Amino acid sequence: MTDDRNSHHPTLAEPLQLTPEELERYDRQLGPGVLSEAGQLRLKQATALVTRVGGMGGPAAQMLAMAGVGTVIIAHGGEMISPDLNRQVLGSEQVLGKPRAPEFAAYLRTMNRLIEVEAVDHEPDDEEARRLARRCDIVLSCPPTFTERLRLNRAAVEAGIPLIDAAQWGMTGTLIVVKPGETACLQCVYPVEPPFEELFPVVGAISCATGALAALEAVKILSGTGDPLFGQLLTYDGFVGRPSVVKLRRNPSCPVCAHC
Amino acid sequence: MRIRVTYLGRSYQQAASLPEDFELPSEATVKDALAAVNSALDEHPLPESCLVTIAGEHLGSITSYTDRPLQEGDELMLIAPVAGG
Lengths: 260, 85
Hints:
Chain A has helices at about 20-25, 35-45, 55-65, 100-110, 125-135, 145-160, 185-190, 205-225, and strands at about 1-5, 45-50, 70-75, 115-120, 140, 165-170, 170-180, 230-235, 240-245. By secondary structure, chain A is α/β, with parallel strands linked by helices. In chain A, helix 5 crosses helix 6. Mean pLDDT of chain A is about 95; it is low at about 1-10. In chain B, strands 2-1-6-3-4-5 form a six-stranded mixed sheet. The mean pLDDT of chain B is about 90.
């Protein structure tokens, strides 16, 4: 089920410019060292898919919504449970036992009524991932399984749009930023799917930090600001407090991106 | 030659007993360094999908990487894949 009730997105009849209310809302992120008005307008016209919206995808979606990305699509199945609350910022104790996606979307709408939020109440399969990616300008991949991550990677590469893969374990966070046809894709990095670990340990602070950095990369890419981390793996080892950046190699025979 | 080895990602605590620096022969390659690391981790060998990087360059994963000579002071970073959610 897709929930797209929000009605504040501009229609085709409206001029493509920022309204006085939008200029006021985004005032602190407009100017030297941040976004230009043209960049903010590009955000307004952009659509981002975030799946899932737990520890990392939640803060990522929140930052995209607050930054003014015109349409934020969130996908996440299931109902909120108590162990989610050490890291999932889009819900609260009042959401326990309720379906995540519609509740989280409702919260995001309270953060910014100037954008559109759509909720998908399940994890997309191959075909739906492809269909969603074709509607989007960027995909933020934040699920717990590599099956889903590699699926989102395939969908983004096929659609020719950037993918940001955010991941975490314990106190470590990682980001991989993919530009199809130019950089390594996730399949290049993980040609064999790594095993799934259902009950991974994690501290919420690293989830939030990683999700926020994923959103920052998305804002840069969508607005045309700064230098995105294309083709690189950013890690932050929070256990010892150390960031690192690794340049990723493209696999010339990658079954997903070799012919892009 | 002396190189630094850093282990990141899933189950990083399993590498807590690893020395930070490894002494290797002067002609050693990445393959030799990985053998030394695995020897030190005999109870918990590196996962097959672990990424192998040297001096900020990605060489592949444990099962498929481009071997190359090491240099004094190189940092071998091993990144076990993480997902989370």
